[in-house]
Amino acid sequence: MKPSTLHTCSSLDELSTTVADAFCELAAESISQRGVFRVSLSGGSTPKRLYELLAKRDLDWDNIHWFWGDERNVPHDHDDSNYRMVREALLNHLPQDQVHAFPVPVDPSNPAETAKQYEAILRKEFAGQATPQWDLSLLGMGDDAHTASLFPGTLAINEQQRWFVENFVAKFDAYRYTLTAPAINSSRYKWFLIAGANKQVALDQVWNHDRQVNTIPSQLIESPIWYVSQEAMPA
């Protein structure tokens, strides 16, 4: 799975600025052509700087719709909440009457119902479509090669019918919520944001090993664009 499009950046700051510039261009194009820009957001530490930069840009916020590609099974005010991170880095800094955000309605006591409710939200927003048809999916990758909350050896990796599911991750002894691979791959653009030396081995696996999606879930993503910091590049 050699990268078809790869942008290498000297640092996380350069990566974040490069992606912010590309995000603004794609948003303007999507809104001009379709009247809306629908984005599936990534959690984790790498995209936080991007969100902080976007908060300072002059964008047509009223026509940007924010969704979550994955979430932790915690309340929205919890330190581990992806929604909280995006809210504090980005959404709180925008004109509140122009924020169109669709967070996962997490009920920690009922993961199955939470996933069902969010899938219903997505299917209403993308009514009549076989898959969500995002304009952009932002993706990260862990040092175990997971993306979104598609972790190695988990059931969600092989899901083909659902768009959004609860996914039990044994190493955390906890549920996560995640878009499925078909729902991510329906996006017009899929951008991986990868930073940190601890990603070198996983990135080498994704790019250079035979397809083994159960152990290398990031290989599930079709034709992504890669934004990678120099320290994360395989040796």
Describe the structure.
This protein has one domain: Rossmann fold (3-Layer(aba) Sandwich). About 30% of the residues lie in helices and about 20% in strands. The longest helix is centred in the first third of the chain and has 23 residues, at about 10-35. The protein is globular, with a radius of gyration of 17 Å. It has about 240 residues and is of the alpha/beta class. It has helices at about 10-35, 45-55, 80-90, 110-125, 180-185, 200-210; strands at about 5-10, 35-40, 65-70, 70, 100, 135-140, 165-170, 175-180, 190-195, 225-230. α1 (about 10-35) packs across α2 (about 45-55). A seven-stranded parallel β-sheet has the order 1-10-9-6-2-3-5, covered by helices on one side. Strands 4-8-7 form a three-stranded antiparallel β-sheet.
Topology of this protein?
Elements: E1 5-9, H1 12-34, E2 37-41, H2 46-54, E3 64-68, E4 70-72, H3 82-89, E5 100-102, H4 111-125, E6 136-139, E7 164-169, E8 174-179, H5 181-185, E9 189-194, H6 200-208, E10 225-229
Parallel strand pairs: 1-10, 2-3, 2-6, 3-5, 6-9, 9-10
Antiparallel strand pairs: 4-8, 7-8
Helix pairs in contact: 1-2
Protein name: 6-phosphogluconolactonase
Family: Belongs to the glucosamine/galactosamine-6-phosphate isomerase family. 6-phosphogluconolactonase subfamily.
Pfam family, one: Glucosamine_iso
What would the keywords be for this entry?
single chain, 235 residues, alpha/beta, Rossmann fold, seven-stranded parallel sheet, three-stranded antiparallel sheet, 6 helices, 29% helix, NagB/RpiA_transferase-like, Glc/Gal-6P_isomerase, 6-phosphogluconolactonase
